[in-house]
Amino acid sequence: MNSKSFGHLEIMEKGWVEKVEEENVHIRPEMKCLPKTVAINETELCKYFEPGNHMKVVSGTKKGATGMVVKVEQHVLTILSNTTKEHIRVFADNVVESFEVATGITKIRDYELHNLMLLDNNCFGVIIRVESEAFQVLKGVLERPEVSLVKLREIKCKLHEKFNLQDKYKNHVSVKDVVRILEGPCKGKQDPIEHIYKGVVFVYD
């Protein structure tokens, strides 16, 4: 996250969202000379991206496209599309960082994008990309994001179970509820729950 202004000072500096209170966003700045957290009005902030980041377009005319950032011009990103291999220009507010890769293929036999799967080694995960003869699956590993290439024969079945669980504050949450991530590399993101299985929550960004 970049701050455009702080008081009368212009600050072009990165920071991480700690929490959001109405219109104020509490940022942990990268600059050591600033306080540990700085409260800034949301209108004074913009998303920060760098060339090499992998993105998904979540709104606008290019919604659904994925690709790698190759150029940043203020609030406009140039992205190399995964599917067309062409450059597309989008506003930074319309994209999020994402592991998902659009290929144009969304289904093989009975399995399709975003299905929750049980694999033959009793692992489980969500399909985030469909290739010609296999799937890229985001596994239910809590410690770190783990994506594996999975072939049809390695899939036991599609999981349809719908569970709920309690969040940090003992509130019950279930599929389709919108949650805010409080810890980890995705801290600050707010997205709907796609699946819940064995205490692991998959959110859709």
UniProtKB/TrEMBL annotation:
SMART domains: KOW. Residues 48-75, 172-199 form the KOW domain. GO terms for molecular function: mRNA binding. It comes from the Eukaryota. One of its GO terms (cellular component) is DSIF complex. One of its GO terms (biological process) is transcription elongation by RNA polymerase II. It holds the Pfam family KOW4_SPT5. This is KOW domain-containing protein. It comes from Gossypium barbadense.
